Amino acid sequence: MIIGAARKKKRKRQRLYGIIFSVFLLAAVGVALCWFPFSLQDIGKITRLAAGRITEKSADIMSADSILRGSIFDRNFHELAVSYRVYSLYARPLELGNRSEAARLLAGVIGENQDVIEARLKKPQGVIEVADDLDRKQAAAIRRLKIAGVFCNPKEERFYPEHETAAQVIGFSGDGVGLAGVEGRYDTILRHGEFKGDTIPEIDFAGQNILGHSRMDLVLTIDLGLQKEIEQRLRRYMERQQASEGLAVLLQPETGAVLAAVVLPSFNPNYFWQSTDASHRSLFCNFLDPRLLRPLLVRAAAVRRNGALGRALLPETVAAPDFGLPEKDIERYETAIGLYETIQCLSPAGDGKEGRQGRTGQDQSIAGGVNIMQLATTVAGLVNGGWKIRPHVLDSVLDRSAGRRFHRSREFDGGAGRHRIMSPTMGVRMRRELFAANKRVTDGFLLYTDSAVGVADRGGDCKYVMQDLLIGMMPRAFPTMLLAMATRRDYLYPLAKPAEKGTRRLAALGRELLPSLYRQAAAWKMAAHVPVGANKANYEQFLVSRSIDFQPRKVGAADTDSLMPRVTGLSLRKGLRRLSRHNLRIRIEGSGRIVAQNPQPGKPLNNAGECVLTLAPEI
Predict the structure, then answer these.
(1) What does the mean pLDDT of the chain come to?
(2) CA 166 to CA 158: how far, in whole Å?
(3) Alpha helices of 36-80 — where are they, by DSSP H?
(4) Tens digit of pLDDT for each residue in 129-175?
(5) Which of 127, 131, 171, 477 is within CB 3.0–4.6 Å of 89 for a Cys-Cys bond?
(6) Nearest to 430 by CA among 292, 252, 258, 253
(7) Do residues 394 and 190 lie in contact, with contact meaning Cβ atoms separated by under 8 Å?
(8) Terminal CA-to-CA distance of the chain, rounded, Å?
């Protein structure tokens, strides 16, 4: 009882001391305000100045030591994706003295109208953006002017010099993060930072466990020359045949190296947010009818049934339908050789980024459809001696600062990268018998073509579609190049316009294209020298493209569509497409779908210079 009363008395004393101290503190603050009267405007001014200085210093510190995202090259070291450091010009209007003189000096450096710059400097903001996308020389010139309250901050911009070429393979990135294609699959390597070598098992890092201390570049198996020729020929064919979609894959059937991969229509990764969903269709969308390959697979199943030392197949004119094979045996053979196996080429195993592959799927045009990669690798396994290959686009990883190039792991490519689907003896027999009855085994190459008509389901609406397939291989004895090409038309014959003679089937295109591709590939030699710096022509192209994209607003002109649209709940690509018509700087936080936005929907955008999008992954 005595102890409890003492504790209670002590707590009362502590509360009394606290009240007395608070009274003295409030009195001291009151005296200070009487002697130094700060207005709310002064307090806001001090706060904005402090925030501006913190922003400037933190940006300078972070950007000065930052390493640009790694470049992506084709196998001849042509740049497919490259990052440049550009500069944004900022000003703190409250620190400026003569704004007209500051505008005049800045206009002479950045080449913009003096009145436009002066109007921006009059905005009642703590920190404003005056200009964007300045190069290193312009930033240095502005620093030499030593204008109080004016500073430049560096930032990184990604550029794709070849625009739509191989866009579905290269993919795109946003805010320094890979979002699709090679950019997304190998973001760990391209983005600066340490990573473990075993996270990329297909590359032999020569025993190094921790990498990424310096900038790392990627060298792909893609050959830009072959890629462009296939794209041009296929696009021309599609125009003549009035096809809506086209696919093509050129690979080495023995190794699985993809030399070219074409999807038409394509998109420009420099403006990926403006593209449509159809242009993002990848090589792994299951829209091809398996019946396109059925005659070839039925013949292969019959060869297997007869055995490696069995009798030869009868000519199809006198043989039984399907060579006497029941439908279940044909289906089992398709499964055994991996026709419906999921292909992991541009995304980690099991992440689902390459679409739902197999017999069923939600986003398929044809029920039970397969993709062009599945068809190509299946045929490759029938002609390469019986190996089921794993197609790949990554050739090597390049560390230019150390002068080292890490190539593919022979252990991976010889082990996990492929497996046998038939014995070596059967592989030789299969290659000899498979095209024995093909009338197009001429000129040293093999050609297989077929067409199929199916019914596509699009949101409950069914419509007929026609698909054409070409499989070409060269040389005839032991193919080292395999071309798979397919087109799709959303209506049947007759065509709206008469097709030119010889273009109704892909065979005519294959006869012209395959020898040309083979000659180019045979003459290829690995580059002896690794490029040291960035390509100057691509950099000039980048600067020109940025200046064309920038359209200054007229001073005092009223903006149309000046209200913030709603983007919450959309994917990043669709949200950026909706915001593209507004002159906003967009900052992205997180990854996934857009869950929050600032400014809020419906808010005026007259003085809004930046839009913040908060992303979160779907659960």
Answers:
(1) 79
(2) 16
(3) 40-64
(4) 888 888 888 899 999 988 888 999 998 889 999 999 999 999 998 88
(5) 131
(6) 253
(7) no
(8) 58
Exposed/middle/buried for residue 341 (C-beta within 10 Å: 0-12, 13-18, 19+): middle
Give the integer Cα–Cα distance in Å for 67 and 152: 18
Q: What is the pTM of this model?
A: 0.75
What mean pLDDT do residues 116-123 have?
85
Extract the tokens encoding 445.
């190459």
Contact 601, 582 (CB under 8 A): no
Rounded-to-integer distance, Cα 128 and Cα 103, Å: 14
- In this predicted structure, the answer to whether residue 194 has a pLDDT above a threshold of 50 is yes
| Dihedral, CA of residue 208, residue 209, residue 212 and residue 218, to nearest 10 | 60
Tokens matching residue 151: 């500073």
Q: With CA atoms as reference, report the closest residue to 105 among 118, 95, 93, 94.
A: 118
Residue 579's pLDDT is what? 80
For residues 217-222, average pLDDT: 94
582 contact partners, CB below 8 Å, separation of at least 6: 561, 564, 565, 605, 611
- How far CA 395 is from CA of 77, 190, 259, 398, 526, in Å, comes to 12, 14, 10, 10, 12
- Burial pattern 18-52, b for ≥16 Cβ within 10 A else e, equals eeeeeeeeeeeeeeeeeeeeeeeeeeeeeebbeeb
Alpha carbon distance 612, 310 (integer Å): 69
**Token code pair at residue 556:** 């005092």
Contact in structure between 398 and 216 (CB atoms under 8 Å): yes
246 forms beta bridges with 264, 487
Query: Does position 503 have pLDDT exceeding 70, yes or no?
Result: no
What is each CA distance from 163 to 78, 159, 172, 181, 282, in whole angstroms? Answer: 13, 9, 11, 14, 16
Q: What is the C-alpha separation between 23 and 18, in angstroms, rounded?
A: 9
